[in-house]
TrEMBL record:
<dbReference type="GO" id="GO:0030435">
    <property type="term" value="P:sporulation resulting in formation of a cellular spore"/>
</dbReference>
<dbReference type="InterPro" id="IPR012610">
    <property type="entry name" value="SASP_SspH"/>
</dbReference>
<keyword id="KW-0749">Sporulation</keyword>
<dbReference type="GO" id="GO:0042601">
    <property type="term" value="C:endospore-forming forespore"/>
</dbReference>
<dbReference type="Pfam" id="PF08141">
    <property type="entry name" value="SspH"/>
</dbReference>
<protein>
    <submittedName>
        <fullName>Acid-soluble spore protein H</fullName>
    </submittedName>
</protein>
<dbReference type="GO" id="GO:0030436">
    <property type="term" value="P:asexual sporulation"/>
</dbReference>
<comment type="similarity">
    <text>Belongs to the SspH family.</text>
</comment>
Length: 59
């Protein structure tokens, strides 16, 4: 995924399904400089991870 799409998803009111290595995640935020996103697995809000934007896919 590219950073432009990540920004669209974060600002969208819609429930857009995103995956990280096959796991469904929510994007909580992003860091444009480092090209990373902060995500958490659906149903596991307390487990946040910083991942490369390029490793996110849209379902």
């Amino acid at each position: 995924m590219d950073m432009h799409r990540v920004k669209q998803i974060v600002s969208s009111p819609d429930d857009i399904r995103v995956c990280y290595h096959g796991q469904s995640v929510w994007i909580d935020g992003y860091d444009e400089t480092n090209r990373t996103a902060t995500v958490h697995m659906r149903g596991r809000e307390h487990e946040r991870h910083i991942v490369p934007v390029e490793e996110l896919t849209e379902e």
